[in-house]
Amino acid sequence: MVGDETWRIRRTVADLDRLGETESIFALGNGWVGWRGVLDEGAPCGMPGSYVNGFHERRELSYPEEGYAFPQASDTVVSAPNAALIRLWVDDEPLDLRTGTVRDHERVLDLRAGVLRRETEWISPAGRRVLVRSTRLVSLPRRPVAAVRYEVEPLDAPVELRVCSDLLANETVPESSDDPRAASVLTDPLTGEAYRADGLDGVLVHRTERSGQRVAVAVSHLVEAPDTVAVTGDGTPDRVRVTVAGRLHPGQRLRLTKFAAYECTTVDGTPVDELADLVMAEADAARADGFDALLVDQRAALDAAWQVADVQLDGDPELQQAVRFAMFHLIQAGRPDGDRTISAKGLTGNGYDGHVLWDTETYVLPVLTYLAPAVARSALSWRHAHLPQARERAAELRLTGATFPWRTIGGRECSGYWPAGTAALHVNADIADAVLRYLAATDDQRFLAEAGLELLVETARLWHGFGHWSDSGAFHLHGVTGPDEYAALVDDNLFTNLMARRNLRGAADAAERLSELAGRLGVDSAEVVGWRAAADAMFIPYDSGRGVHQQAAGFTEQPEWDFAATDEDDYPLLLHYPYLELYRKQVVKQADLVLAMQLDPGEFTADEKARNLAYYEARTVRDSSLSAAPQAVLAAEVGHLDLAYDLFAESVFQDLEDLGDKTADGLHLASLAGAWLALVQGFGGMRDDRGVLSFDPRLPGRLDRLAFNLRWRGDRLRVTLSPTEARYELPDASADVEVELWHHGEAPVTRPMPQVPDPGPEPPSPPGRRPTRRSAD
Amino acid sequence: MVGDETWRIRRTVADLDRLGETESIFALGNGWVGWRGVLDEGAPCGMPGSYVNGFHERRELSYPEEGYAFPQASDTVVSAPNAALIRLWVDDEPLDLRTGTVRDHERVLDLRAGVLRRETEWISPAGRRVLVRSTRLVSLPRRPVAAVRYEVEPLDAPVELRVCSDLLANETVPESSDDPRAASVLTDPLTGEAYRADGLDGVLVHRTERSGQRVAVAVSHLVEAPDTVAVTGDGTPDRVRVTVAGRLHPGQRLRLTKFAAYECTTVDGTPVDELADLVMAEADAARADGFDALLVDQRAALDAAWQVADVQLDGDPELQQAVRFAMFHLIQAGRPDGDRTISAKGLTGNGYDGHVLWDTETYVLPVLTYLAPAVARSALSWRHAHLPQARERAAELRLTGATFPWRTIGGRECSGYWPAGTAALHVNADIADAVLRYLAATDDQRFLAEAGLELLVETARLWHGFGHWSDSGAFHLHGVTGPDEYAALVDDNLFTNLMARRNLRGAADAAERLSELAGRLGVDSAEVVGWRAAADAMFIPYDSGRGVHQQAAGFTEQPEWDFAATDEDDYPLLLHYPYLELYRKQVVKQADLVLAMQLDPGEFTADEKARNLAYYEARTVRDSSLSAAPQAVLAAEVGHLDLAYDLFAESVFQDLEDLGDKTADGLHLASLAGAWLALVQGFGGMRDDRGVLSFDPRLPGRLDRLAFNLRWRGDRLRVTLSPTEARYELPDASADVEVELWHHGEAPVTRPMPQVPDPGPEPPSPPGRRPTRRSAD
Question: Do A67 and B470 touch (CB under 8 A)?
């Protein structure tokens, strides 16, 4: 691989049999609009998808056996009208890569330009050779705007070309549910409210029937072609089409540029006509500025983003490319404006029904807090905006404070299996943790007053009401599910207890600091005392005989998993063993306790970390994409740098190599974010759990250099690690700025890299479940 | 109430607004055929139902979130064609108690005659007064046969009468599921395969589409009426109808007697024509013998049954009636021939989808083993016949031996909520317990060899493979659900552990006794040694601080339920609190540990029983009909006779007073059986857990006398308790028979009643949850 390729992702004709995966990898988005990387012509296609953040339908859920407070409906992401489609006919034969002869076909995702380029040389079944080029972007600086420039030219002989540019609602999607009621909701989910087709302009406005949402999409076209072509436009409630047709000779070129704009509101929000006017104006404005201007702005936005987000990693170009791919998708996933969050798949696919899970707060926001804090704030404001539903849910569950949903789009609980959904109360502490981290990194007092305090208070109330005191004076959280989904309904899950403690203390600190505001939330000093007492008495399950912490009370006394009797084909275990077996045995899906050591490192001694890692690594199978990153962080901290390196590679290659065979449903944003955490918290040794930044770096043998940036209270900190030294700089700061939070107030500073002490033999993974070895390549 | 009423259940016009409940109470059955007590004319009706034991359809199950080995389909009871219907038109106006004037209406279930009698005097809207009488029976001695004698006479003036006797398939039933797929399966579930209508005879043969079952029903009629009436017969695939019509004068009477016969097989069993011939012959034979002969035979069969089953209870005639009602339905529920079992509702309704649960082995068979051992054997043979499915299920669950379903009709697991279904593995030990009890009571060596040994061996294998050894050398069963459904997925549920221990030991004993046969099942001495070792090391969770056993490990350390904050309207709790709250707190639905003390009494000292009862009574709410009986048994044993009496009353009145508001779905056979257990094991103090009978009787203050019978190894033992003495007799035995198992080999024998020692204050129930006080009436 040449160096330059680290800024590109390339797929050729050979990848046409992995369309779904490629569509996710080539997805473009800006945190508001997302287009999957479907071919311009829309077919062949793995799964179409053009999303607006938060736009969804609701579908009923039914249970073979009902239970109190089981969610009766689930939010499900549905596609907004698709403006990316451009179909081509060559002498009346449709361009379809499954027909004719594909002489050349390549698509390139350009990570610096922020565009998807395509070049196809195709000979039609009748023998007409054409060259098709397209460039697609979803504008980072212009929230509603996406655009495609599409060019076609005949190569050998004159041909009749017809290019149809569609804006299409209710595209046919593969069935995603075996429940006929769900399928009926998700087939043609949009109801047309208005359409306009006026020459090169068009608008569709649709609503959903159950979730009460309205989406409007406008398209505006620019045609550059010989005079011989004719342009027509027409529309129906579900489609606006602009057709450009005519005879072209070799040397002549037809170029169609389409500018689209997306807006979404509720049906009782902006009226239909007004919304149609708005999107049309946005699309027209983009056309007026021109595609080249969009390209320039896109590049500028990305340059700014990369200045912070780029991670340089010398010694392994494949990994360098993969890391940039990961960071590109994180840049695309969120927005600094408004209060929208980032779902597990972002806007890259409909996996998990488009739901937001704890991944956002625990994997994605810890990265964005340091790279793009306004995006983290936006996502946390989204949680705050859904506090009313979380309070309602807590009341329904007969709990105190607020209970945020395990899975949702619109704010209500959508989990259909409560032992691994509603019972996973840690999501509330995860949100509080993300708030505390954001506040520590930004000192954003306005956010604290407007949203942060209330989030901390209401989640602290949950824990205080949920827990109970034992005779011995310890505070316990019983009957919850931690991050590990191979366990459920356990007592005193260590991760949950530690995170709840952080939550209680964070809320107490904030309430004391803003006592007047806290008072308006009903917090008095007695309540704060109660939170602190519960936090101080929080039970920490520990097996003194084995010298390891327990993932939950009694975990280490559960039966061991019989790895010797487990075949390679038996993984992932959840597809081959019942929960009955998984739950009661010492086998781990998500690296639960290891993640606790990552997020609350000060609660464990170095020896405990080493022993815990060894114990749990031997019991953690590679069945969740969420495990590798925290395992990498802890393996690096303990000194198992080869293992850490391989785990980091597993995290960053999750989608580029489709390790879980699920990339077609959308990218694993948590895993991609985890790659940054593995580098920065693992090899960089960065920690932030006490509201201060600290670094304890160590470089794996395969890397010659690792450089990354962080934002800290408005400044950019640049860290560069080599085998011999660690350099800390504030490249943008004036001379008198000091970052007193790291390395004794001196900045910039260069320090020698310490020798990593020999951590002893690498902890064994379960047989066959060690991450693929990359460290020794 | 006059004494005679204790043999009758009477409902009048006042009960017409509780039709569903009355239909269950008036259900007739013989363990093969069951007719709900719907009015002859079929309307008004709570829920129609005419069942054949085991006849069912299968419907798909779907889950919001799938899991490995979640059952994909569920058996559901569906009605066989209904032969009970007889409709009347009076001058072209249909008899319908909701119209015209009901001058008099009464139905009486005669518990000695085994018939349901009805007498209605009705004035039609046009003013015609008629008297209608009917007598209905489902023949106990003749398995396929049910019959109705229907009489109508004009009272004031001549009228045109038309009587239509229907045999009707696919009767309209109220929707039982909100799942449209289930509804579509259960609407018109029967497909006609053949029908015959030949004058007064008719047959319908139907099959189910998914479960592959075939049912055939024949009707044969006898008409006794003035010559002026005309008789016609006609049929369609779903209906055979015989119509008798003509003008009758006051003093004249029209009598129609219908004889029906039911058979059921699989679609690859008896061919359609052959089955049709068979049921027609059976119906014709019944008609040839005549209704009076059926009545005589019915009475004889019941006389024989009552000789053992009747319990005499002097001092509380309402309870005497209720006990007889309970015993009547137990007599009706099973059959001594074939291998059919008894579902939770018997053949009295479609509650629980008609499923068989652990209630059968743990509540119903302990009664039938002593009253009608052949019926118990039949039900256990049904389990044995489904061993192949239980072995398949164990393999699917990656467990050893056999895993019987939590809910089923056809033998496969139908539970749609695995934490309270599949995880309730104790059903396997419950089956083994029923086998051991049956063997101890009957010494039936043939059953042991043909079925019992294999049942014991395969269930023992389950426990041995499922459990694990702790470092301290104890054998544990983790991650199971015990009887209490307000807890789930617990470690070392005491009930399960004790029952599994009985299972392991019982299997070991049987395998050693029949070592050659056991060898053919693959049992060698090492396996038996393993079973004994596991049994001997079985962990018994005990809280030494509180001096009580733990329902499961850690139970007594769980948070307490806040009864002070629980309103009367919050019961049953499962409709007002999430499992999240119920599971982790000390609140009990089914009296789990108390049941363990009933079934394995030798494992607890008297003091432990008293302390355990007090501890768990305070935490057990009245949300399950399964709790009262074991609580009554233990309350009696401990000496709280008033509490025991009130609990007994709750158990026996469950349906007659519709305490759970569910009687319309069918009777609670476990609760009715529990009433006998409360009397015999509670006040009689009978115990059988060591394979020997023993009695420790004590009479509650409200009773002057309690007399009951038991079969023990072929003999009938009669026990009569008065405040002063207990008499034990073998009324049927020749003089030289000795029952050496009770009271030192002396039989008959009379003993003084001991003084019950003062047990101290009654253990408090949760506020408002004590059973209704009857003891002090």
Answer: no
